[in-house]
């Protein structure tokens, strides 16, 4: 089994392997371009969705705070009603007092209830101002939420359009790339994928450009340049680790 596998691998020369790797790199770069075309839209959609959740939570909190403030206003109004009734009751009783002590006690109670009414009225004013402020904040938050929802709908439409336009092309490229991967030995394919993942531009296979690596642009020693042009073995950049190929091979690919 191992012998047949080795013989299958030997069907491809180093030059053919390099050409296949360059084709694979070209296809993966095209897929990268499609992803670039989508740009930041997926991230923008996610950010907008997160922001909308945050705004909805804030809006719910505002409404809960307004409800608490309105309940507090109702409580103070009830206290005013109770204190007013007590004042009326004490005024009725004061007409029937039997001595100065009772008169003084009732007078103090009336004064105390009057202070309670003033305090409740003050709290009602404070709570009412707070309700108005929260209502204004709620309006602003609600308007902002509506705007973000409109932005999200627009971004989603844009993303859906781009995805629908490029999906078929991307699927075709991925299908071709999978076929090419079967022509690359597993060890080399693993190295290729690792290099692509580590490179900021996704380039694992590059050509010599003016005697330098086409990936990191460091100079390649003359002897190594000769080895690359011989197409006898897979050569990598000693600085960035990318696979370096002779530009003539791209012409052979064409």
Descriptive account of the structure:
The protein is mainly α and 254 residues long. Helix content is 78%, strand content 5%. It has seven helices and four strands. Strands 2-1-4-3 form a four-stranded mixed beta sheet. The two termini are 35 Å apart.
- Report the CATH architecture of the largest domain: Orthogonal Bundle
Q: Which stretches of 5+ consecutive residues score pLDDT under 50?
A: 1-10
Strand order of the largest sheet: 2-1-4-3
- Average per-residue pLDDT, rounded, comes to 89
Q: Domain count, please report it.
A: 2
Instruction: Provide the structure class.
Output: mainly alpha
Taken as a percent bin, the fraction of beta residues is under 5%
Report helical residue fraction: over 70%
| CATH first level of the largest domain | Mainly Alpha
What does the overall shape look like? rod-shaped
Query: Helical region count?
Result: 7
* Strand runs, count: 4
Distance between the termini: 35 Å
What integer value in Å does the Rg equal?
A: 40 Å
Main sheet characteristics: 4 strands, mixed
